[in-house]
Amino acid sequence: MNWALLLSKLGSGMLTTLEIFCVTLIVSLPLGLVIAFGRMAKNPIIRTIFKIYISIMRGTPLMLQLMVVYFGPYYILGLQVTNSYRLYAAFIAFGLNYAAYFAEIYRGGIESMPDGQYEAAKLLGYSKAQTFIKIILPQVIKRILPSITNEVITLVKDTSLAFAIAVTEMFTQAKALSSSQVSMIPYVAAGVFYYVFNLLVASVMEFVEKKFNYYR
């Protein structure tokens, strides 16, 4: 087994995995909050649109969504798709998919807050925006962090689905190496990479949870 080649290829794939992971979080976390507001809107039309969006994103496989985002521009609009678009398609598909999951987590956290807090803030002269940002949101974040942590850990593993559109992330590299070297070692090494990555993510999220645990 060529260990230098193994580490080089898996390291290269890991960088792409990190790219997908980071961009997905940067896109989906704020977008999920926007979608959650749409899902809770008083206007029934807006509420239904966002409800359908969440239902589709959560009810269809992420791999299928990746293929639709990547091949859609060509089959639907007749646009020529380049190889460089593969990674951007992964960013878009992952971002839209995880935003739907985060939206439901946000919604559950926001709706769990007692109405008395909104009324008390109103009596103290807070606007709706000030009430949400200064009073409600910090408490919501504390409540939903365990659920967010689960989704973030799942995201680490889901990045391997990018192979469906030939994005050369770590799993794709491991699969290619395993075929060329006729060995299971690349898969084992990739598994170790994923495990260590998830361990780091879990540790960071645990640290954040402790920071928000200000009631103890």
TrEMBL record:
Concerning PANTHER family, the annotation shows: L-CYSTINE TRANSPORT SYSTEM PERMEASE PROTEIN TCYL, MEMBRANE COMPONENT OF AMINO ACID ABC TRANSPORTER
- Protein family (similarity comment): Belongs to the binding-protein-dependent transport system permease family.
Can you tell which superkingdom this protein's organism belongs to?
Answer: Bacteria
> Matching Pfam families, A to Z?
BPD_transp_1
Its membrane topology, per UniProt?
Multi-pass membrane protein
Please state where this protein is localized: Cell membrane
> Under what name is this protein listed?
Amino acid ABC transporter permease
Q: Where is the ABC transmembrane type-1 domain?
A: 14-205
Keywords from UniProt, A to Z, are: Amino-acid transport, Cell membrane, Membrane, Transmembrane, Transmembrane helix, Transport
According to the record, the segments passing through the membrane are 20-41, 85-103, 184-208
